[in-house]
Design brief:
single chain, alpha+beta, Translation Initiation Factor IF3, 2 helices, about 30% helix
Length: about 80
């Protein structure tokens, strides 16, 4: 599987994990965060359990997380 990671702004990246079910969104998010360092990551998911669990998991790891439901998917922002 390919990491769908792209730069969308100054110090901001987008990771599209739509179509993936647990545990892949979390695994891909962790890989992306390692790759981008201190940049902000926006994760797009259409998987309700991932939308629920990703904020919990990454807040426990010390990240700030903001989640917003959009049209049929969630956009989860993660940063230090």
């Amino acid at each position: 599987m390919e990491l769908k990671l792209k730069k969308i702004g100054e110090n901001t990246y987008e990771l599209d994990v739509r179509g993936n079910t647990c545990p892949f969104p979390q695994i891909f998010t962790e890989l992306a965060l390692k790759k981008i360092g201190d940049a902000k990551l926006e994760v797009i998911t259409d998987n309700p359990p991932s939308a629920r669990d990703l904020p919990i998991v990454f807040e426990k790891k010390g990240y700030k997380v903001e989640s917003k439901k959009e049209d049929g998917y969630w956009r989860i922002r993660i940063w230090k």
